[in-house]
Every structure is written in C-alpha cells, then in structure tokens.
Amino acid sequence: MTFITCLLAGFLFSLVSTQTVINLSDADWTLQNLPLNISVPGSVPSQAHLDLYEAQVIGDPAPLSRLKTFDGLQTWLLFNGLDTFTSIDFCGQHIASTNNQFRQYAFDVSDQMRNCSNPMLNIDFGSAPMIADQIASEPGQETWPFGVEIVYEFPNRQFIRKEQSDFGWDWGPAFAPAGVWQPAYAIQLETTGNKTPQLYVRNSDVDLSRQGQLNNLPPSQSAPWFLNASVDVLGSLPVGAQMRYAVADSQTNKTVSTGMLNNITMSNSTITGTAILDPLSYELWWPRGLGSQNLYNITIDVVDSAGTAILASVNKRTGFRTIVLNMQVISDAQLAQGIAPGNNWHFEINGHEFYAKGSNFIPPDAFWPRVSQTKMQQLFDSVTAANQNMLRVWASGAYTPDFIYDIADQEGVLLWSEFEFGDALYPVNQEFLDNVVDEATYNVRRVNHHPSLALWAGGNELESLELQNVKNSAPDQYDRYRTEYEKLFLNHLLPVVYGNSRSISYIPSSTTNGYLELNFSLPIPMIERYNNKTPGSVYGDTEETRQSVREAEFSLDYYNYDSSVAFNYSGYPVGRFANEFGYHSMPSLQTWQQAIPASELHFNSTTIELRNRHYPPGGLNITNFPNSSKGMGEMTIAAQRWYPVPNKTDSVANFSAWCHTTQIFQADFYKSEIQFYRRGSGFPDRQLGSLYWQLEDIWQAPSWAGIEYDGRWKVLHYIGKDIYQPVIISPFYNIATGEFEIYVTSDLWSSASGTASFQWYHWDGSPITNVSTPSTNFTVGALNTTKVLSHTLDNSTLDYNNAVLYMTMTAEGQLPNTNVARTFKHENFFHAFSLAHAQLVDPGLTLYYDSSTKNFTVTATKGVAVWTWLDNPAGTLLNFDSNGFLLLKGQSRQVGYNLKSDDTNGDWVNQVTVESLYNNTLSLANSQDAVQDLVQILGRIPAQKGCLGDMGVQRSSICSWFPRRPKKDGRTLRHIRGNSICGRNKSDHVIEMWMQDDYIADPPANGALDAVDGHAWTPWRGPLIVISKAPVEELIPRRTLIEGLRNASDGLASEGRWGKLHHEEDSGKVGVGRVACREDQDKGVPESSSLEISKRHPAFRNADDPPSIAEIINYGLCETFAYEALQPQVSAEKTAKPRNPAIEALYCELGRLGFFKFKRAEIGTTRNGIMNGSGSKLLLDKRKRPLDVDFANALCKLCRTQIIPLAKRRHNSGIETEELHDEMRELVSSWLPDFD
Description:
Strand content: 15-25%
Largest sheet: 6 strands, parallel
Number of helices: 25
Number of strands: 54
Distance between the termini: 81 Å
Shape: globular
Helix content: 10-25%
C-alpha cells in the first residue's frame, strides 16, 4: 500500500486558557509520496490529484471541468479516430453515432455545453463483429457469389469500415479491438465581440506538383512548381480571408521564399489558394540511394482581409519531387530498344525511371496505440540498411499515421499507399459510398504533403483475385459486379485523389493490368484494361505465364507452395513489376520464447500450430489444425527437400534449428526470385520493381516476414540486403536443358564496367580444376543487365551434386546524382542441386570479437561454410552488417553490427554464436560428436607468451585422473582437475572438472566428505566444468567455449549419464558444488550451493532444482560458468610435448567408459596414471608426423567410427586391457599408416 502524507509547517500550538482558532487553509502544506519520492506544495481544501496536477506531476484528472460556459463560445468535440461503432453522449445528451474507424469526426456541442455545469463525455462502443453480422443479415442487403469474400476468421468485414485485418488474416490474429485509437480534443472558440475570430485547424492539404501536371502522367521537369494549399478549420471563416506561405530549409531554418497565395476560394469550412514557385530555388527530394532527402518546412497562414492578423496557421515538412506511376503505351523509341510492346508499369522520380526495391508493410501491431515512434524508427532503419527504397503499405490495415510518413520522408523511403479494401468486394449503397468518400478525403488531404507518398491504390487484389473469383464462380454475374467495383473504385475514390492532388497517381487495384485509356476530357478519366490484352504484349505489375497457383487471366501476385519448383525460374511470372511474392517461415527461438511457454517450444506444438494462420480457419474455428498443418507441412517439406534437416535430441535445440532452416529456404527462394526480377530490367519485359511479401510481423508467429515482431532480422532480411545492392552478379540454371548463365545487373543510372570471376569448389574447400571458368570483363548499361558467363552443366565432367560455384564481381560506376566514381563489389554462390544430400564437411568455423574495432571475425578453417549464420542472444536487438553468407576454406569475414537495445549489460558479445548449414548434420544423440566439437574449439586456442604448445593446448596434461574411490556410505566419486594453462596452479587460471558417477538426491549438509592428496571431494551432482573469466576469454571467445560445453553436456545428459548442472559463485571466485575454490577456502569463504545462490534471483526463489545451462546464461546468475563435464579426461605422463586435443578426447572418452584397470596405489598421482605406459606410446610417442589439424580430424573420425565401438564390444565381453590395446594398434595402423 502507498501512503500519501500531508505535512503542515510553521505553526506552533501552545496550551492556553483562551480559545484559539487557526485557519489551516492559510498554512503551507506539503503533499508527499515517500515511496515514489514525490514532494509538492499542497493546499486545503484540495485533494491529492488536484495538488499533483497543479504541480504538473500528472495531467488534469478532470480536463472537461476547464471548459467554459459564458456566451459567445463555440464548443467542439474532435475525434481523429474512433474504432468503430460508437454512441456519444455529452452533458447527458446524445450527440452522435459513428461507424468508421478511419474518419475524423467533429461535433459542435455548443448548445449542450451552454447549460452544463458538470460536463461529462460518455462513449459507448459496440462489438464490430456482431454489428457486421447484423448489417449482413438486413433485408435486401448486398450479396456476392460464393468464394468472393475471403473469410479469415470473423465474417462480413466488407460491410463495415474497420481495419479489415482485425477480423483475421493469414498472418495475424482476429482481436477486433475497439476504442479511441487516435487523439481526441475538446475545443472552444470565441465567436463574438471585437476580437479576431478564432479558428482551429482540423486538417490541411499541401500539394506540390509541376505546373500543368496531371495525375498518372509524367510532367515536364522544367516547369515551375505549383503550390496548392488548402486548410480545413473549425469556426467561421471571415469574408475576405487571405492566405500566405513561407518556405524554409528544414536543416538551417533559412527562409527560401515567401508570398501570398492567389485564387482564394472558400467552401464550407475550407479555404484554398495557389502559388507558382521558382524551380531554381529548391533542391529536389530523392529516395534512398538515388540522391539526397532535401526537406523544407512550409508554413501556410490564414490571415484577415488586411493581412495583419493570423487566424490560423499550418506548418508542414515537405519536399519537392514528382513521383509518377507510368502506365503509358510502350513508345516507338522503347520498341527500338528491344522492350516488348504493351504498356509501361514503373515509377519515375523527378523524371527518371528507377528500380523499386523493397517489401510490403503490414500493421506492425494488432493494437495501433502500441506502435511507438521509436519502434518505427528502428524498423525504417532496418529498411534502409537493407537497401530498400520503397514499401507498399498494404490495404486492409489502417491508414498510416503521419509520424510514419515523417520517418519515411527523412529516410528516403517511398510509400505506395492504399485505401483500406482488400480480398473482398464491397457494398455500393449510397450510405456506404458517402462514408467511404469522407474517409478517403480526410486521409488523402492529411498525408498529401509527404514527399514519400508514392501512389494511392484503391485496394488489394480486387481485379486480380476478386473479380476473377466472380468470373470463375458466376460468370453470368460478372458484368454486374465489375460495374459495382467501378462505381466504388473509379467513380468515387478516383475523384477524391484527383480532386485533392495533382502530384499522385492512382490505380483502383494493387495488382492490375493498368488502364486501357486515360482521357481527362471524360467525367471519369480512367478506363481499366482488365483482360483486354494483345498477345505478345506485356502489361501490369505481374503476369502469370503458367497456371501454377491459380488459374487467372489477370495479373497475379506470385505464391507457389509447391517447393519442388521453387528454384525453377522458368515458372516465375513475367511482367513489368512484382508487388507481391513470397513463402512463409518460422520466427527464431528467441522470438518464440517471448510469447509461448517452454513446454510448447517444438515445431508442431498446439500453440505454434494455432498461431500459424496459413491456411486460415475460414471462420470462428479455434482448433484450426487441419488447415494450419498444411502450412506447417509446406515449411517442413521445403526444408527437407532442399537442405539437411536437424535431428537433435535436445528438443529446444532441434526446434531452434528447424525454425532457422525454414528461414534459409525462405531467403533462398526470395533471392532466386529477386535475381530473376532484377535481371528483367534488361529484358524485353523491362521489369523495374520487386516488393516482396512481407516486411515485418504483427505478432510472434509463422509468416512471410523478413523482420520478426520485436525487430530481429530473419535470414530473409539479410539476403534481401545483399541482393538489393546497386550492382549484383547472379546465376540462372535451367534444370531442363542444363543451360547455365550468369548475369551482372545494375540499377545505376549510368554504365558500369568491371570484372567477373568464377571458381568451382568441392565442399572440403579444394578448387575444382577440370571445369574452365575464366574471368571476364564486362560493361553493363544504365538500369540494365549483361550476360558474363554461358555454360552447360554436364555431370560427366563434374559431380555438380557436390560442387559449389563461387562468383565475384567488381565494377566501377557512379551512384545516381553523384559525380564521384566508386567501386561496387558483390559475391554470390551457386549449387546446381538440393543440399539435402550434399557431402557437406565441417567448415571449422571460428569466431573472434575485437573489442577495439567492435567487429566479429568469422573464419572457415577446414571447408566451405554455406549459409554461415551469426546469432545474437535474447535480450538484445541488433543487426549484423552481413549474415547468411558463404565462406571458402581459409576465408575470413569481419562483421560489424548496429546495436539498438541491450538487456545483457554488454555481455551479449560473449554470447554470439556462429554456425553453418553443416550444423544441421550434427546430432547431439551422439555425445562423442559433441565431445569432438568441444575438443576442436579448445584446439583453436592460440599460443600466447610461450604458455601453449604448437597445437594450442597445454604443455602439461589437459587433466589429471583420480579414478573411482568408493565411500563408506556406498557413494562413488571422482575428481578431475586441469593444470594451469600456463603452468600456474591458481584458481582463476584453471579449468576444473568434478564428476560423480551416481546421482545423489540429498547431499550431506556438512559439505565435503573427504579429500585425496589435499584435493576436496564433493558429494554434489556432477560432473562440472568451471571456466574462469581470465585469462581463458582472452584466448578464445567465452561464448564459443560455452557453446561447445553446452552441446557436449547436453549430449551426455540426454543419454542419462549425468545429473543436472550446478554452479557456484563466492566473492567473485569460483567453486564447485558445496566446495569453494582452494584460495577461497584459505580465506575462510563460506560454502554455498548453486541452488542456494540461484535463489538470490527472483526467478528461482521457489525453485526445487538448480538452474539449467540456458537459465544461467539468460539470467546471468554468475560471472563465471560451471558446466557438466564431457567425460573424465585421462592424462598421459607429464611431459613438455604439445598435445593433440583429439588424442586427449580419445583417451578421456575411453577412460570415461571404464575400459582401463586401476590399482589403489595409483590414486593421487599422475606419474602412475594409466596412460604413461602402452597407452601413451600407442598414440603419442610412436608417431612419424607432427600433430596437425588434419591428423586430429582423422583421429576424431577414427575414434567415433572404430575405436569406441570396438572398445564397447570388447569391454562388454570382459576382454583384458592389453588385448584391447593390441586391437586398437591394428586399427590405428590400418587407418593411419604414419603410425608404427
């Protein structure tokens, strides 16, 4: 409970015989809230809320009480967004009802306010799904043929003007929220007396076009700028009101031009004027990558007839640019260039064709009030970082808020915008049409000044899908529904755009074959083409060339979920522009963990399947497993068909790997399509745009997104960044003919020249020399493509199933609107067939972080790393400079990053991991594989100050063995301790392992039970490894070591060999189990268990078990980490000779399995250890070659495939150790002839 204290100061009371009365209202009061450290002046009489408001600690607790009631006041209620059905009462009287989420509503409540002493506003919201159903069931209501309305969850969305995706979509939930979702105001204006009349600006329209410009047509770039400014006000415009303007540079605030507007007109509560502006006074605004984003602040003042008093003022940040969607007939000049006949379908900025590169923007949250400016800035930072210059703001969401357009203006991202209609046909009764016109007029005028606004489209897939559905299901009714479609989208919405803007193009549907005629002498200038096409001509933004997805005569978006033909580019649609295409994937483990419990973290869990809306339930079915499983199956089949898929015994690790593999397929597929579309810029189809589906997620779920709900990049967004570079090299393989070609494609506005190089490799990294792929010089024209290699793939000369082509391109050229030459580089890779059965090898990836440069360095030491992936932990939001790339053997890449948020206090750099597609071939079911992985990690520790040998391991033994020692209570314990890395036995420089054979549920309370040679023993569960922070992390990134330890220990734990992990932290030092480290014991540091320590964290206060490895990492429970040991490690005789980590792993594993005999006298000494005899000579002393990496790899493989299985068989048969050694010698000699 929080208490508020009122303090009285400065008054003293004394006991006197006379009556004393003190007015406490005159006292100095202080209002305090001690827990919140609030102290403000108080008053009496008052209440806490009023004092806090007076001190500006809180807002007005009753703001309507400030409304005045004297005569001569006009009172308005203004709502910028009510979602959706409301009944509004004010001062106890009904004011109005609303039925449109997207309209601005203004209500004059002057009469109600005049006699209202206690104003009260009440807004009742109705259930949108229920009201939609009621409207649909009204007598004589509009109907449509079966299948025209696409039902996702709630039906009948087309009858109401609400965010259509609130009723469900195939990527999001159906919450159908209600509320005041945009700002609302109560406004009072004085209307009488001699004062200047007061006006309040409710909306405005600032339109900058070239003089004489008409919508949808390219204007003259030499014409002056034409300013049309219009202001919508509350209040009464006085007779003779004038308008003036001022334009200032937004960076310097320097005034560029001023003047009066001409041709003033007033209609209702709107005043409009125009002006001609000198084109030489303003710098142009350009999209990202095409020039600078020059912005200006334009102020429009409404003034009285004398021009002295400002009645109203509007300030807008804008830019000078022309943006046109050119859909004109292909000209003779274009035909002469080899462009196919038909119509254009591309954007032109300031008179220049350009290639539109980007994606589709959907609602970033199911609840718009949660969409913050910070989150949107981060999203647009990701857009521009990925070389995108255009987003299609998809219809059927909500109209984009101004602050998002502001960000787009600043970042240079064009926004193709749409009215909120999609995947349905709509009523055309007059009430509905009037409602829509008000909605459209408000939003067109509101955002028209933004230079990022690129287009208005009537809706989503209306011609390509909805009218086509009518033609398929009810062809006899097609003319009726086409007429209704034109009534809404041509007769009503087109005039709204054309009547409020000359600078913006309009199309009635997002995917369309364009117009048949554009004639401004007609009442409705645009006549749609529909399917009136000439054979051999190309129209529209996409055009199906085969009936692979849906039979269609109209242009279609491309979605093909038959993954067997995913990379067959001969089936991709050919058109002038591609505005939707895609395939779904899973989000990352880190994103799933934000939304669902750990018990549901597996691929086809109930929660995940029900969050997957592909395919949608088609109604209010909360158990959509039949449809959802189809979408889940498509992801699964695609992954299995094209890549090795994971099969890990750790369910969470397996789930994470599966999620990642679906992302690889998605990225690979999109890359193939984008390469194809970009190549079309130099082909007859003159393809000049690709916007993939989709940019971001609305929640945590499977979807087509490239950016997950919290902003984490999927593989797709990284690959999109790479393939949207200005100049790229890309391969094309026709699997039917064997024809293989490579092209260089450029979206620069001038030619570029350079060199393309090619080399085939085996997966082990060795070059393939029997296939000739010489380098070639090239010149690629402006917005064009050129072939740099043509070849036929013939398996008789090369097994292309197990070969990868690495290609690079270097070119000299200039970015648009620059005069500086620069070098463009791009690399790509190609494999002819599926990687599912490719003979991938361990690339031996290493990861190093340089704190001075803040770069990660990734190196492939042993083979080709394909789909190399750096992963950042939960608790961070960042993107790497590059990811999902290929590394050749011996190749390194430095990778920077952009950190956006961090909850790890900087420790995330130690938790970054790296892997490649090869990791999918590993299974933690075999703990020996995990052991070898860890050994390889340890083997990469570099030599330093003479402390380490040439193999990167300790000069002294990795570990000393103390074999099983039975205790008097029957428990069996072992202790393994590693010597100092540099030969110093200090606890902050050692790797220690503690192991216990048998699980002990209730360890004795007295801690250590016994000791051998002064070493403490622990009854706690084991085994454990303790890694100190220094100096190990100076030698190898700690996270790399942690990953190896975790994989190895998880592998062992999954086989039931060892108990759970424990760790200990005492005064910054490290101890194990219930025993503090030796130095701490000397200092008398008290002992404590990992479970006790973990209970210091709120998440584990009621825990019965110690934390898991993941929990230790995620919660940061200790500075250093203790992990389950891989196995007891066996050392050979102490020697200064460098050791091979693979040999150590071999003996450790054999020792752990108990294949050696021990005597009591051997306890406590390494000189009598078992490996100083035949064992050590077997593999250490009798060698003819140095212990290099290749040898270590061979020995690892030998250990896994031959020696350990042999040892297991012989041990189970009771064979003697010496005989086992003889058989092992024979195996080693036959596999490794360099041994005696």
